[in-house]
Amino acid sequence: MGREPHPLGGNAAQYLAGTQAATSGMGALMGAALHGIGQHVDVSMQETLLGAVDGRLLFTEYTKEVATRGDNPAAGFQFCQDGDDLDAIILPWLLDRSKYQIAEAAQAEGVFAAPVLDVGEVVESEHFASRGYFVEVDHPETGPVRYGGAPFQMRETPWDIRRPPPLLGPAQRGDILRPPGSHKRGPGQVPPDRGYLGDLTTKEGPDMTKLPLEGIRILDATDVWAGPYTCTLLGDLGAEVIKVDSIQRFGSRGQLNPPDTRPDGTPPVMWAYPDGVPRTPGTQPWNRVALYNGINRNKLGITLNLRDPQGKDLFKRLASISDVVIDNYATGVFARLGLGYEDLKEVKEDIIVISMPLFGNYGTYSQYKGLGSTADPISGHATLRGYLGEDPTGLQGTVHSDAVASSTAPFAAMAAIFYRNRTGKGQFIDFGQCEAYMGHLGEVYLDYTMNGRVQGTRGNRHESAAPHGCYRAKGDDSWVIIAVTNDEEWERFCQAIGNPALDGRPALRHVPRPPRQPGRAGRSGWQWTVQRTTTTRSCACCSRSPHPQRGRTATPAWCGISETPLSIRIPANCLGEHNEHVFGNLLGLSWTRQRVAQYCRSRPDQRKSTIRADQ
After folding, report:
1. Is-contact 469 525, C-beta < 8 A?
2. Any transmembrane segments, and where (predicted)?
């Protein structure tokens, strides 16, 4: 039995749920504007987090086994026969260079690497200064303070802090409720800064059959997780999403013939196939892999070779009939292909393009390549998560930034569509995934800019609750979280564990208990939980979708919308499944079925060339 699980840094669950609420609320607003439908939006924090665990839910559905911690053999420290020899070579080289020099040298060779920054180093970072991420706000009580800035940069409608956070008290309450530039108005008068809502709303009354984004088309040129899931959420809200796959580069569809098991004999989480263990890849494993199928529902799937002139032409034709184009490749990849924003603007003047490289399209680290686990150290998050007082060397990578980026980018897309419908202007959105992630650590950065304090790991402890921790329950690797935030809860907790006398101890009686002697309070909870099993409340908002090659599997919903409930209209697409429909019906090409198959080469063993995210 291993150590107890520990949380992410900051207040990850609350921030992610808030982001999903903003995105789903924006979707409902779009539905009201486009179709005249008002909605009640229900966001569950539990269901939000279920959607943030990449392919692990589908892994469990596929293999009937539970994905556990430490399931990535390529991450972390591994013993090997010549480990001492490697240490003798590598360690002197590392210790002779700064973390910045090491990361720069590795990136120059195409290796994903990043310096591990603490909170203070993030705020003072040259990269974020070059992008203007931290902004100074003149607060009436504190004076000038540096705040975290925009989660994404919109070229046509730049983000701005129009006022500092509100103060408490009745004198300020009116300022909280009154929008900037508002004036006294009579009943029923629409404030000038919101008049565009009436211009966008349908004049024919509500159409209760339409999803919020029905009539919007998204061209999805993304891979792995953050980009694809961005487009999936837009598809869930009703947009028609055309997913561009490549048979030259598989990405999240996995390897053509991946190994059946990891070194310990179990199947890799991301590349698991259905039908239990042992896995059965089948004749088309690329259509059955867990990671892809878990995050690519509600899309039409096509295949294109974007290095081929005809492939580029077809991509531009698709862009010309789309509202939004999204890519998450490294900085400059699509521009070098001749498919950047300026290129696409030539075929559609009001196109909206969202580019999602990890560190943005300009700045010191803009040419750095990586995954979510690369954003973790540069954002400072790697120094915040972990066991109390321990450094990051014992941690495996986390890709929570993918979940954050994919929850935030749909909001950016809808905001740009909203603006375009109002003005007729499209725009380019520079979406640095790391900066979207940093927006979820705002109070941590403020603690540094206001107080000079660099926060570190706190394990499962919390400054406003005790006991607050992860306690072992009865069973193998079974745990329960207990949080007591006030004296009333403390009294009920003591009753629940059958130890009411504990409530009378002066040292433990009042909140906050020093951090309220959390060790003494926690030990009593541990003695109780270790004798009991855990229960999990079922997710109330799940749906099962049929798939031609993997059967029916469960998918967690990320929000509930009252009038036009979200559903899985299209299961995750098979490779090139909708080529004929998209090229024939949407583009109007009079290609024969044989011509489509010949051009798209929908069998991966016919691959001829490679396009990589770093080219």
Report:
1. yes
2. none
Nearest 5°: the CA angle 256, 258, 264 is 175
| H or E segment and range at residue 598 | helix 593-600
Give pLDDT, residue 306: 92
Closest residue by Cα to residue 430 from 233, 241, 157: 157
Q: Count the neighbouring beta carbons within 10 Å of the beta carbon of residue 48.
A: 24
- 473 pLDDT more than 80: yes
- Cα–Cα dist 579/332, whole Å: 27
Q: What is the DSSP letter of 555?
A: E
Comparing CA positions, the residue from 444, 328, 436 lying closest to residue 381 is 444
DSSP codes of every residue in 40-66: -EE--HHHHHHTTSTTHHHHHHHHSS-
Q: Per the structure block, which two tokens stand in for 157? A: 């409608």
Give the long-range contacts of residues 3-6, CB within 8 A, separation 24 or more.
3/387, 4/460, 4/469, 4/470, 4/471, 4/472, 4/479, 5/69, 5/470, 5/479, 6/385, 6/386, 6/387, 6/459, 6/460, 6/470
For residue 310 the two structure tokens come to 């005809």
Domain ranges of the chain: 17-65+209-444+548-606, 479-529
Q: How many C-beta atoms lie closer than 10 Å to residue 576's C-beta?
A: 22
Among the listed ranges 349-363, 368-382, 398-412, 560-574, which one has the minimum average pLDDT value? 560-574
Under DSSP, is residue 407 helix (H, G, I), strand (E, B) or coil? Answer: helix
Domain 17-65+209-444+548-606 annotated CATH 3.40.50.10540: yes
Average pLDDT over residues 600-606: 53
Nearest residue to 9 via CA among 440, 522, 463: 440
Q: Is the pLDDT score of 202 beyond 50? A: no
Alpha-carbon distance of 512 to 497, in angstroms, equals 20
Q: What angle do CA 318, 358, 30 make, to 5 degrees?
A: 50
> Inter-axis angle of helices 400-423 and 12-35, to 10 degrees?
20
Note whether 465 and 489 are within 8 A (CB).
no
Rounded-to-integer distance, Cα 577 and Cα 548, Å: 11
What's the CA gap between 428 and 343, in Å, rounded?
12
CA distance 256 to 278: 18
The Cα 139–Cα 167 span in angstroms is 10
Judge contact between 610 and 308, C-beta under 8 A.
Answer: no
Q: How do residues 584-597 score in pLDDT, each as one tens digit?
A: 999 988 766 667 66
How far from 13 is each of 48, 52, 471, CA to CA, in Å?
8, 10, 19
Contact present, 600 and 579 (Cβ < 8 Å): yes
Q: Which residues of 340-358 are buried (b: 16+ CB within 10 A; e: fewer)?
A: bbebbbeebeebbbbbbbb
